[in-house]
Amino acid sequence: MVAAILILALVMIASCGPYSSFSARDRSQIPGYDRPPLGAFALIFVEIEITPAVCLPPTTEEECELIVMNLPSIKQVHSGSGLNLWYKGKELIVTAAHVCTEDVPDAFEHAGIKFTVLQKTTVDVMSVSGKKYRAEVVGLDDDADICALKIEGKFSDDPPVKLSESPLRMGDRVYAVAAPYGLGGKNLALVFTGFYSGVRDGKHFYTIPTRPGSSGSIVLNEDWEAVGNLHTAYVPLEHVGIGAGWKDLRDFLESVQLED
Predict the structure, then answer these.
(1) Torsion of CA 9, 14, 18, 20, to 10 degrees
(2) How far apart are CA 260 and CA 249, in angstroms?
């Protein structure tokens, strides 16, 4: 069987059944999946607006107002992939840390004038039903490259995905739902499959194609439970992705604190 196959899923599918509340504290109260958890997939949009703030010396106030403060704001937009997860009573949309944030230089320069900027980041998530929600970053681990988002209300009529109770073994089949190049959203999700290939220098390797926009997709085992994530493409080999492992994901979810 091909190590990495692409299933184009037009999500005209029945959900796993009605599920009115995800506030369950007991793992057994969360229904499992017997097929790819497309209803839990989240396409993530991040907009970063950069606005001039303060000019640096030796620029005068007059020069700053005339040349810099009239510059238009700069908007950067990128997308990523994520999944609605449940862990110990917490329901979170989980993706990659670098999806939720953007490295912005401390200072910019225009016409020979250096200045600092204000940065405003807005995160929205879309389900395969087409519903869009404003999200808040509630957890971030730059080292493991994992981010947790929280929305107001219920993300989907389908249940969230549970974290597996055990890690992967080398050679285990794995899956990921992703939106490479933003190809996903309403009535569309891409399901990839491959194998867990092991770990080197703390990075976990999966034979799953990973492209821009795939970042943050959650790796699933054959029981459709979360076991890691994808955050980096291994450029020399187009069917290999790098990400976090089961323990990274478990420790991260354990660390996320939500306000009551």
Answers:
(1) 30
(2) 23
Residue with tokens 């017997």: 34
The residues with which 204 forms a beta bridge, in sequence order, are 199, 243
Task: Give the mean model confidence (pLDDT) for residues 1-6.
Answer: 38
The pair of structure tokens assigned to 154 is: 């219920």
* pTM: predicted TM-score of the whole model, two decimal places: 0.86
How many angstroms separate the Cα of 189 from the Cα of each of 42, 119, 155? 9, 31, 16
**Residue 217 per-residue DSSP state:** P
Place of tokens 């917490």: 90
Token output for 119: 């940065």
**73-89, pLDDT tens digit by residue?**
989 999 999 999 999 99
- Pull the structure tokens for residue 8: 């184009």
Tell me the β-bridge partners of 245: none
**Contact call for residues 48 and 120 (beta carbons, < 8 A):** yes
b/e sequence 113-134, b meaning 16+ C-beta within 10 Å: bbbebeeeeebbbbbbbeeebe
Tokens at 38, concatenated: 């497309």
Nearest to 44 by CA among 212, 251, 200: 212
**CATH class of this structure's domain 5-255:** mainly beta
The pairing of strands 161-162 and 74-87 is parallel
